[in-house]
Amino acid sequence: MIGRIAGRIEYKATDHVLIDVRGVGYVVYCSDRVLAALPGPGEAAALYTDLLVREDLLQLYGFPTLTEKEWFRLLMSVQGVGAKAALAILGTLGADGVSRAIALGDIASVKAAKGIGPKTAQRVVNELKDKAPAVMAMGAGAAPAMPDTELTEPAEPASRPATPAAAPSPQAAAVSAQSEALSALGHLGYAPGEAAAAVAQAAGEDPEAGTETLIRAALKLLAPQA
Question: Where exactly are the transmembrane stretches of this chain (predicted)?
């Protein structure tokens, strides 16, 4: 499985990019949004990738973050959503937009993607809504794919061995989880005050909750009451 590509861009087409990795060219299909954000030919670039395998086809799809790659995989698990439709949704909304639309049950936003009808949009939201907190937690604090340093400047050798990092204390882990949950809720469009109040209440009810659990609990607290 090819999970990441890092090299120099040879050319960009309407739906894919060719990346040269030490003399081997990889064709990577991307959404319009990702293609527009990539640098021009001759520049270094890196993408997380997902390899689609069929009887008569091998295709790589590229994403700037692991969150977007995970949404691509989950979107394709929905009946009626193939690679083209998944890229259309991600190209229209972006990873944060998909998280927001699915977590909040916003069918109209999903339907805005080219080629996505109302029934498919409803299936996407219904089938993936419970999975949104996990993807949002994975994306909180995650770094985007970056070109290998050797493509630009050789890394200087370390002057001394690295010291293993100490394991975070339970209190530090709880603070980190709350911070990441706040960040994820902020991407959904919640105001800092209401997001902080919901996360604080969720953390008070379960002090050892991780990021995913806090996001899920906070979303329930923030959901409109019938």
Answer: none
> In sequence order, what are the residues at sequence separation of 6 or more whose Cβ sits closer than 8 angstroms to the Cβ of residue 78?
120, 123, 124, 127, 128
The Cα-based distances of 50 to 28, 126, 128, 165, 183 in angstroms read: 9, 24, 19, 31, 26
Site of tokens 């973050």? 65
Residue 143 confidence (pLDDT): 60
pLDDT at 219: 84
Instruction: Find the mean pLDDT for residues 207-225.
Output: 80
Structural domains present in the chain: 4-63 (2.40.50.140), 66-139 (1.10.150.20), 170-222 (1.10.8)
Tracing tokens 């916003």 back to the chain, one arrives at 106
- Burial class, 130, CB count within 10 angstroms (exposed 0-12 / middle 13-18 / buried 19+): exposed
Res 7 pLDDT > 50: yes
The single-letter code of the amino acid at 166 is: A
Q: What is the mean pLDDT of residues 156-183?
A: 64
How far is Cα 179 from Cα 199, in angstroms, rounded to an integer? Answer: 9
What is the torsion angle, in degrees rounded to the nearest 10, for the CA atoms of residue 183, residue 189, residue 193 and residue 198? Answer: -70
DSSP letter, residue 220: H
